[in-house]
Specification:
It is a single chain. The protein has about 210 residues and is of the alpha/beta class. Helices cover about 40% and strands about 15% of the residues. The chain contains eight helices and five strands. Strands 2-3-1-4-5 form a five-stranded parallel sheet, with helices on both faces. α2 runs antiparallel to α4. The longest helix is centred in the C-terminal third of the chain and has 20 residues. The chain is globular and about 45 Å long. It binds 3'-deoxy-3'-aminothymidine monophosphate. The site of 3'-deoxy-3'-aminothymidine monophosphate (NYM) has 12 residues, from α4.
Length: about 210
């Protein structure tokens, strides 16, 4: 998997329901070249702190307002993302625009309205959708205190995610034992790194 020194990094996104196992996948950092793991929301910025307070039920915001804050939180990181990728660093990002649209449209907002503020953000080279049934995800250690972690909502969310599948999308069977999930992810990621190293252009949403 040798890559020329001026090849760009890949933009890889992990998506899925709450408790689908995304965060256990940080071993991907050990792939052997420059990789950074990021996540959205990025709770460290001012916008991120407003989001965090909303998610923890410490503040109330109108559904459209919180949607735009999640989007703004990605926009404030766009130029850093682009420079990292162009300098050869691969980014593996836990949640991105697909979560943004899926969560808000599962609440009842219009899907096209939800997609609009994401236009022009960098398009992932690969979206790894950790596919698990809402029932099975709910069995995993129970949901926490945050908003959205309820079975009925997660069922709507699964339908919204499925409506967003595009050319970069790969379904990963996330109900298998963790080693098997890792194996599927590793193969798909290595494949993607190879293609990006061969000069695949960096595109913008939506594909
Ligand atoms: N979430 C995440 C959204 O509703 N919209 C978004 O754009 C993003 C990135 O925030 N339940 C939701 C999904 C999660 C919650 O994410 C916090 P995490 O991965 O639990 O920190």
């Amino acid at each position: 998997h040798k890559r020329s020194s001026d090849s760009r990094g890949a933009l890889i996104v992990l998506e899925g329901l709450d408790r689908c196992g995304k965060t256990s996948q940080s071993y991907l950092e050990e792939l052997g070249h420059a990789v950074e793991s990021w996540r959205f929301p990025d709770r460290t910025t001012n916008v991120g702190q407003m989001i965090s307070s909303y998610l923890g039920n410490k503040s109330h915001l109108d559904d459209h307002t919180i949607h735009l804050l999640f989007s703004a939180n990605r926009w404030e990181k766009r130029s850093l993302m682009e420079s990292k990728l162009k300098s050869g660093t691969t980014l593996i990002i836990d949640r991105y625009s697909y979560s943004g649209v899926a969560f808000s449209s599962a609440k009842g907002l219009d899907m096209e309205w939800c997609k609009a503020p994401e236009i022009g953000l960098l398009a992932p080279d690969l979206v790894l959708y950790l596919d698990i049934s809402p029932e099975k995800a709910a069995e995993r250690g129970g949901y926490g205190e945050e908003r959205y972690e309820q079975l009925e909502f997660q069922k709507k969310l699964a339908r919204s995610f499925k409506a967003l599948r595009d050319a970069s999308w790969k379904n990963i069977n996330a109900s298998l034992p963790i080693e098997d999930v890792e194996k599927q992810l590793r193969e798909t990621v290595l494949n993607c790194l190879e293609t990006c190293g061969q000069g695949k252009p960096l595109l913008e949403l939506w594909l």
